[in-house]
Structure to design on (432 residues):
């Protein structure tokens, strides 16, 4: 009761003070707004409340640009936020970062962490690859550490520029300063320039393709060399034998240095002979060119000649077929004539002095033989009654060798033989 009376007395007093109620309401509203704003801000800063369950893992980086302890910077796995950076401590060889992860995200000893930035203004976050078996799982009580060999950091632009010399940095600064003036008319001129760049890049595309092919070839060569090196490393015994054989060969060459010198001294003479031989070959080439030209000219006339020869051989085929039985029957006769031919060869040697006088004697004894030649012209046989043109007349000619005039008589005309018929010879012939 006493307490209730005190509250009633205080309320009456507040009501009796002018403006006190309004002030109290204003203060209450401001306190509520402050609490709401604080809660909203703290929610965006990802504040870790003491009663929340967290898993703590540490990471070592060579440098940590933009890292802020308790700044609510994110830790992501596959692009999804799974924790925050709770601390960043500088060390002699880099920065050790402590991260708080949500439960259910185990990290293994083969994990890898990348320090990246959301914007060019160094708003960093950590992209974590948690790894997996067979590596052991890291402790989540803060004792597990991912070493610097398994982390990569964000490279700052000034670090790239610091590798340039003074003149290049000055030229780059001047380029940035003059870019405002140079890009003043860019809406009108830049599209055409970009089209020109496109044409230039299309022109350079074959070169890029060739460079890509060359890169692949070099990669294949390096791979082959690696395989050769690996094979050679595994064959230590064979490689040692090869080195020993090389040493023996070099020793033998050293012992025969004088002989090698004599051989080298003979090389100039060999070069002169080779030069002379090449000159002869050049001359032969000059003589061979006309021959090849003649062969080329003959090649034009050779096909018609071969065609005619083919027709001739086709016509000669029946003749050869018809002559085959005659040749078969004549073979035994020729075999029987072989002894006679050997005897006739010796007889002909004896008759050789006499045959030299026969042309003159024949001209004196039978001057009418040219007339007889016309009589038997184009006949297939002197004793045949027909030739290729058909039948012809038959005549009997008597030749009197004792008559100086030749004694040519034609029995068909009824001429009677003269004296000396014993010496006559009878010959039957024909002509066209």
């Amino acid at each position: 009761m006493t307490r209730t009376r005190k509250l009633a007395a205080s309320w009456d007093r507040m009501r009796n003070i002018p403006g006190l109620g309004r002030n109290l309401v204003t203060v209450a509203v401001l306190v509520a707004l402050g609490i709401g704003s604080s809660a909203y801000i703290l929610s965006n800063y990802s504040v870790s409340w003491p009663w929340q369950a967290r898993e703590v893992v540490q990471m070592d980086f060579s440098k940590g640009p933009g890292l802020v302890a308790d700044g609510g910077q994110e830790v992501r796995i596959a692009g999804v936020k799974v924790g925050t950076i709770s601390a960043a401590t500088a060390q002699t060889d880099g920065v050790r970062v402590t991260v708080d992860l949500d439960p259910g995200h185990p990290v293994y000893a083969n994990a890898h962490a990348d320090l990246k930035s959301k914007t060019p203004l160094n708003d960093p976050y950590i992209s974590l690859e948690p790894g997996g078996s067979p590596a052991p799982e890291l402790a989540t009580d803060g004792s597990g550490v991912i070493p610097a060999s398994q982390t990569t950091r964000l490279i700052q632009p000034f670090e790239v520029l610091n590798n340039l010399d003074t003149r290049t940095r000055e030229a780059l600064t001047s380029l940035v300063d003059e870019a405002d003036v140079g890009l003043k008319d860019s809406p009108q001129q830049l599209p055409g320039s970009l089209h020109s760049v496109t044409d230039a890049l299309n022109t350079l595309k074959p070169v890029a393709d060739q460079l890509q092919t060359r890169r692949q070839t070099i990669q294949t060569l390096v791979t082959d060399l690696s395989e050769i090196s690996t094979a050679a490393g595994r064959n230590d015994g064979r490689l040692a034998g090869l080195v020993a054989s090389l040493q023996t060969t070099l020793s033998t060459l050293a012992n025969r240095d004088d002989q090698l010198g004599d051989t080298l001294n003979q090389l100039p003479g060999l070069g002169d002979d080779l030069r002379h031989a090449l000159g002869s070959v050049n001359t032969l080439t000059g003589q061979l060119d006309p021959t090849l030209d003649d062969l080329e000219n003959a090649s034009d006339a050779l096909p018609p000649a071969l065609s005619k020869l083919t027709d001739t051989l086709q016509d000669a085929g029946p003749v050869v077929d018809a002559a085959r039985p005659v040749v078969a029957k004549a073979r035994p006769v020729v075999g029987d004539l072989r002894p006679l031919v050997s005897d006739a060869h010796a007889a002909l040697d004896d008759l050789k002095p006499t045959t030299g006088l026969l042309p003159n004697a024949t001209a004196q004894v039978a001057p009418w033989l040219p007339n007889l030649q016309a009589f038997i012209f184009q006949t297939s046989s002197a004793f045949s009654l027909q030739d290729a043109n058909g039948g012809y007349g038959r005549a009997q000619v008597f030749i009197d060798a004792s008559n100086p005039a030749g004694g040519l008589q034609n029995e068909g005309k009824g001429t009677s033989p003269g004296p000396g018929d014993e010496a006559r010879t009878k010959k039957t012939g024909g002509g066209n």
Q: What stands out?
A: The mean pLDDT is 75. The first helix runs from residue 2 to 16.
